[in-house]
Write a structure and sequence with these properties.
alpha+beta, 6-stranded antiparallel sheet, 6-stranded mixed sheet, about 750 residues, 22 helices
Length: about 750
């Protein structure tokens, strides 16, 4: 059972000193033995007028006075509550400080009502109850009864239409920060890293949620205690993926209990479990309640509910039974409790509803206060701390997954082999004739002579005696029928006329290596590295689809979550780029030795070092796009659809198809296509006087553009920032999961 409240007189605390300290360490003047309290959490300074000044000493979970965060220092007035994690200090008018654990207070609902505009009946209708510490409560009811909404209310996530929900007399719905550090939640869907060991899962949960000054020895002690309390200490070294469903649920419970919450909410603890595992999990929950915690379990299984101290049955949003498990059958007049649900379905909930208060409920949505924010500096360091812990967890989860590591190495190697195989016999040095526009003198000459030549070719040329030049020319052309047919062609006439008017380029200029062959190869290369990047970012987000919402509800910063993912992505994309480009470069030299074919022309591409840097940034940009797509859904089936949908614009805008040569597609590519910048930076187009010195059909980026690797890197950096911001925005407003 919980200890009785302790009291301290100010005159004794400040005897011979101006400042006293509060924290977890025994050396403090007021020692609060709870893992969520920092070692030296806060200090109290008594001013000359007798008033108390509270100072937050860089604690992890902060200090609040009546729900308002203390940034730096604040005056603590009598008749107010000072909260440090789950501990409360009350200062009365007699200068006595009373320490209580906030978790020792009752959870009380009175006429709790939730209405939805599109639904005729309330989701919750005048729900009232009182739950005490040390109780094991089972919430039962058919589908749609309001169990999910009730749990969301207990977490402080649900907007209500009337009634109240109090914890120790304080309203939860208008100020959900009251529950900070006090509630543990285990959702129905398993949310564990399967590649970690059982001990690692619980250890990282403790490291993430306990104060930053918790020593390694203390963390190990809390982890050992949590594992032992769940009866899974013998599984500590096993991988999560190798244990049974019942053991998985106990691992999840241990990761919540490691921070010693006062309320434990469990959704469908025994779903899909065999009878033996179900019984063990219910025994564990009952024993957890005996340790002084309020344990509330939503369940559909009736075999083991007798292990609960009390049950509450909901139907149509109403409480139809609230009492000991043994009294439920008599209440409904049935022999088996399952038959009670049949009666509820046949007769309706109104007959059995318990309305403890018949007073009308004012259907006005509860006003939720914005969560109090700590100083920017405190939030920054807490975010950095969380990011560091999550990064270590990502490394541990990734390095322990050998199959994932193998595929991560295989993919760039396989893509490189496919690409070199498709280009094994391609001659990148093949020549092509380049034409130019006619100059002024040439246009004048063609304008004068071409009509005569064309008309002569069209004439029959039969009058040999005529001295007319056109006739004589036609006669001579008659001796060469093939030439005459060509010169008389209207297609050739249109081409020549276009050259004279300056709309067509036909005059031979020079012979060069065909750049399109190289450009097409470079575009496929960029597409391969971009696809790997996008797939990597999407995979890292989707695999945590059930984990992030639960951890966000426990105080995880979305920015810290993204930072940890970004650390892995930076290293992984760099690793894949080295493998991909390294294999291609090596095999092109092998190709040269075997086939005698030249390497890709250096006049049309950047150096290998520049190429690898560009490819790395393109992969990073697409990986961040993949993270944004993952933040949109977190569901694998939808993620695959989004992957295909977003690869299409990368394919059309970032390849040698010249679709980004026109203004509108080019503008779109600036903002959404890392492959566009990747190809633009990796290729080199011949330039003269700021214009592309290639025929129009070879100008994949238009007539003129700035050819610069630093500019392309800046463009991809801007896209990385954009996609990270969008991913953070989606994560920030993502609703935490509930039952």
């Amino acid at each position: 059972m919980l200890e009785e409240p302790a009291s301290f007189k100010l005159v004794d605390l400040f005897a011979g000193k101006d400042e006293i300290f509060i924290g977890r360490s025994p050396e403090n003047d007021i020692c609060l033995k709870h893992p969520a309290v920092s070692r030296i959490h806060a200090s109290l300074h008594q001013k000359s007028d007798g008033s108390l000044l509270v100072k937050d000493l860089g604690s992890t979970h902060g200090v609040t006075i009546n729900g308002k965060h203390v940034d730096g220092e604040a005056v603590w007035n009598p008749q107010t509550t000072l909260n440090l994690g789950p501990q409360s200090l009350w200062l009365d008018n007699g200068n006595v400080i009373t320490v209580t654990r906030r978790g020792s207070l009752n959870l009380e609902a009175k006429d709790l009502t939730v209405l939805v505009p599109d639904r005729k009946k309330p989701i919750l209708d005048h729900v009232s109850f009182t739950f005490k510490p040390g109780q094991f409560v089972c919430v039962l009811g058919p589908s749609g009864a309001g169990k999910t909404t009730l749990v969301r209310c207990m977490q402080g996530h649900q907007i209500t239409s009337g009634g109240s929900l109090l914890f120790g007399g304080h309203p939860i719905l208008s100020n959900p920060t009251i529950l900070n550090g006090l509630v543990g939640y285990a959702p129905q869907k398993m949310s564990l890293h399967e590649t970690l060991t059982v001990r690692q899962v619980v250890w990282f949960a403790a490291k993430l949620r306990l104060p930053s000054d918790t020593s390694p020895a203390e963390i190990e002690t809390h982890v050992d205690a949590a594992l032992k309390s769940m009866g899974i200490d013998f599984l500590a070294g096993q991988r999560v993926s190798s244990i049974s469903g019942g053991e998985l649920k106990r691992v999840e419970l241990a990761s919540e209990l490691v921070v010693d919450p006062s309320i434990l909410l469990v959704d469908e603890a025994t779903s899909s479990l065999d009878p033996a595992s179900e019984a063990r999990v219910m025994d564990v929950l009952a024993n957890t309640a005996k340790q002084g915690k309020l344990v509330l379990c939503v369940t559909h299984h009736l075999d083991n509910i007798y292990k609960a101290d009390t049950i509450i049955i909901l139907a149509d949003g109403k409480v139809v039974y609230h009492g000991p498990p043994g009294g439920a059958c008599a209440h409904f007049g049935v022999e088996h409790l399952a038959d009670a649900f049949v009666r509820l379905e046949d007769e309706g909930a109104e007959k059995w509803a318990r309305l403890d208060s018949q007073s009308p409920v004012e259907t006005v949505p509860s006003v939720r206060k914005l969560p109090p924010k700590r100083s920017i500096t405190a939030r920054f360091w807490e975010t950095m701390r969380q990011a560091g812990i999550l990064t270590k967890r990502e490394f541990a989860a990734t390095l322990s997954d050998r199959r994932y590591l193998f595929l991560a190495m295989l993919m760039p190697a396989l893509f490189a082999l496919i690409l070199i195989g498709c280009h094994w016999n391609v001659d990148f040095s093949s020549s092509i004739l380049i034409t130019r526009d006619l100059n002024g003198d040439e246009k004048t000459s063609f304008k004068f002579f071409w009509p005569v030549l064309h008309d002569a070719a069209k004439s029959d040329g039969l009058d040999e005696e005529s001295l007319n030049f056109k006739t004589q020319l036609g006669f001579l052309l008659g001796k060469k029928p093939a030439m005459r047919k060509s010169l008389a062609s209207e297609d050739l006439n249109q081409i020549i006329q276009g050259a004279i008017e300056g709309t067509k380029t036909i005059f031979p200029d020079k012979i060069i290596k065909n750049p399109l062959t190289t450009f097409k190869y470079l575009s496929v290369q960029v597409m391969g590295i971009s696809f790997m990047g996008m797939l990597l970012g999407l995979t890292l987000m989707v695999r945590d689809g059930a984990i992030f919402p639960r951890e966000k509800a426990a105080g995880l910063s979305p920015l810290a979550y993204l930072a940890s993912k970004m650390t892995i992505i930076i290293l992984a994309t760099g690793f894949q780029t080295i493998i991909f480009d390294g294999i291609l470069e090596s095999l092109f030299h092998v190709r040269q030795l075997v086939n005698g074919l030249e390497l890709t022309p250096t006049e049309y591409r950047v150096t290998l070092v520049q190429m690898m840097l560009v490819h790395w940034f393109a992969a990073l940009g697409c990986a961040c796009l993949g993270m944004f797509l993952g933040a949109l859904t977190f569901k694998p089936d939808r993620a695959i659809i989004l992957l295909g949908a977003m690869m299409l614009p990368q394919l059309t805008l970032g390849t040698a198809m010249s679709l980004a040569a026109t203004p509108i597609p080019r503008t779109v590519a600036y903002f959404i296509s890392p492959t566009y910048w990747g190809l633009r930076a990796s290729q080199i187009s011949p330039m003269e006087n700021g214009m592309v010195a290639l025929p129009t059909y070879m100008r994949i980026f238009g007539d003129s553009f700035i050819q610069s690797v630093p500019l392309a890197l800046a463009g991809m950096t801007a896209q990385i920032i954009l996609y990270l911001f969008l991913a953070w925005w989606m994560l920030r407003f993502r609703r935490p999961e509930s039952a």
